[in-house]
Specification:
The chain has 335 residues and is α/β, with parallel strands linked by helices. It is built from eleven helices and 19 strands. The protein has a six-stranded parallel sheet with strand order 5-4-1-13-14-15, with helices on both faces. It has a five-stranded parallel sheet with strand order 7-6-8-9-12, with helices on both faces. α3 crosses α4. The longest helix is centred in the C-terminal third of the chain and has 17 residues. 50% of the residues are buried.
Length: 335
């Protein structure tokens, strides 16, 4: 039977929550990536996290048993720097609020990095910094009030770690946004620049994006008309999936990224009934009821995919009973 990846030439992956959680590889990710290489598929790793350089990310992946070249890694700091270069004159001054990795990418596109609003920067770019200095936030505000154009690498509200969710770039950027009342031009998912650049870099004709978040990964893929696989190894879970609007609905779901190497999960919908595999979901009054055979995770994912078809087709239905049958499927770390 055909595997999901057979329909695509390139597999693109989010990192945190899909390939690893903090310092640890997610189970099966090394084997899954190796399987894609064996099948001759292009692989690319894409992260909204602007704190680390692409070389650091590739070294981390390699240390986890997932050999990755620098050219196979694309960060939001790289996409953000390229976005700046499209808007500014060569050599223009940019105030960087972020790590040295972000500053290095800005220099690499021929722009001048400054640290103070008194240097009269043409733009400010902000990215996630685990050691954010509050004085740099103040300088960003001064510069933007003076007319600098505001850019951000990404707006993630949180990021998954091996111990749970912690604040991401979004809360840090909110400190500036709330003071200047200006929305930044953003490079990372779900906005287009990062994924558009990925398609160009890897010459992808038929890409699929694998992610663990509805708000960045799946909406981002949909924004560039790219098919997506939503996996349950990171930040979001079954509640996020069922509550997704049309812009956040994935093409496929799977337990983890190895679903690319299995037959695609396909559901059928007819009236008030949806089926997937041996699972059947039906509408009874104002509720979705699930006849869930078997008890392993894959069977439950079949049931969830059937329930999703009805929940999306008729928003407002109560799927509480159906969720009670899906106790092996994560609700999501944020729930």
């Amino acid at each position: 039977m055909a595997e999901l990846i057979d329909a695509y030439d390139t597999a693109m992956f989010d990192l945190d929550g899909v390939i690893y959680l903090g310092p640890h590889a997610i189970g099966g990710s090394a084997e899954g990536i190796a399987g894609l290489h064996e099948r001759g598929k292009r692989v690319g790793f894409i992260t909204n996290n602007a704190a680390r350089a692409a070389t650091t990310v590739s070294d981390h992946l390699t240390s986890l048993g997932i050999p990755a070249s620098v050219d196979e890694v694309l960060t939001s700091s790289q996409a953000g720097a390229h976005l700046l270069a499209q808007h500014l004159q060569p050599g223009a001054k940019v105030l960087v609020v972020g790590t040295s990795a972000l500053a290095d990418e800005v220099r690499a596109v021929g722009l001048t990095v400054v640290a103070s609003a008194t240097d009269e920067p043409a733009a400010v770019i902000q990215g996630y910094d685990p050691n954010l200095d509050w004085s740099s936030v103040n300088e960003a505000c001064y510069a933007i009030h003076a007319g600098a154009v505001y850019f951000a690498t990404n707006l993630d509200r949180n990021r998954p770690t091996e111990r749970g969710l912690v604040p991401g770039a979004g809360p840090q950027i909110d400190a500036v946004r709330s003071s200047v009342a200006v929305e930044p031009v953003t490079a990372g998912k779900p906005d287009r620049p990062l994924l558009d650049e990925a398609v160009r870099r890897w010459s992808a004709d038929r890409p699929i994006f694998v992610g663990d978040r509805i708000d960045t990964d799946i909406i981002g893929a949909n924004n560039v008309a790219m098919d997506s696989l939503f996996v349950f190894t990171g930040a979001h879970g079954k509640l996020d999936l069922l509550g997704a609007g049309p812009e956040g609905r994935p093409t496929y779901i799977g337990a983890d990224m190895r679903a690319l190497l299995a037959p695609p999960r396909v559901a059928s919908l007819a009236g008030g009934r949806a089926t997937c595999g041996a699972a059947e979901a039906t509408i009874v009054g104002s509720e979705i009821r699930l006849d869930q055979p078997g008890g392993d995770l894959e069977d439950q994912l079949d049931g969830l995919w059937a329930v999703a078809q009805l929940a999306w087709a008729q928003p407002g239905l109560d799927y509480t009973q159906a969720l009670d049958e899906l106790d092996l499927v994560p609700a999501g770390q944020g729930q």
